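Discussion board: Methods & Data

I've been asked by a reviewer to show the raw model output for two of the constructs in my manuscript, not just the figures. I'm not sure how much to include, so I'm pasting the format here to get opinions. Each protein appears as its amino acid sequence followed by a line of discrete structure tokens. Is this the kind of thing reviewers expect to see in a supplement, or should I convert it first? Here is construct A:
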Amino acid sequence: MPIHHLGFRVVNFSKTRDFYLAALKPLGYKIVISFHEGKVLGLGATFYAPDFWLVDPNVITEASDEKPAAAGPMHIAFSASNRAQVREFYEAAMYVL
């Protein structure tokens, strides 16, 4: 399974946003989509597929259960061809734990 996208909550959102926009520009990356008044950004090299996300740690989302999360946790999503692969991935991961 290839990596589909990555997401990071960052301490200094403005500084980190500016850094990645400049650093990734030569690779064709730009802001593809934003939520929560620009505090959640999806960056990508195409207009329809953000694969690198930056999140201000003070943003409240469903995933954070209505509480701001601390900076640091990472979100990684893998691509799967079908639901069977997803189940196999889950079962293998749970076996390791």
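Construct B, same format:
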Amino acid sequence: MGFLTERERQIMQMLKNGKSVREIGRHFKISETSVSRSISNIRTKALDLEDDVKFMVNIGFLKIKNNRLEFISRNKDPKALANI
């Protein structure tokens, strides 16, 4: 389970592959406005995720090492914070 819907993932992949908003709309048979709205939703989700990760790093639940997230406990259990 990810934070993006399957359609949002498909749109991101198509953008990465150089497709325009118009081309994506045609592919999915939806309006350019709908594609643009999906892109805005993706951006909002990414910003929210960034804020959440910053919070978890700040409280010591996560570390960022070598551009990877590392949890403070192997089982990724938030209760491990109580044992610090």
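Answer (T.O., handling editor elsewhere):
This is acceptable in a supplement if you add a one-line summary per construct. For B, something like: The chain has a mean pLDDT of 88.
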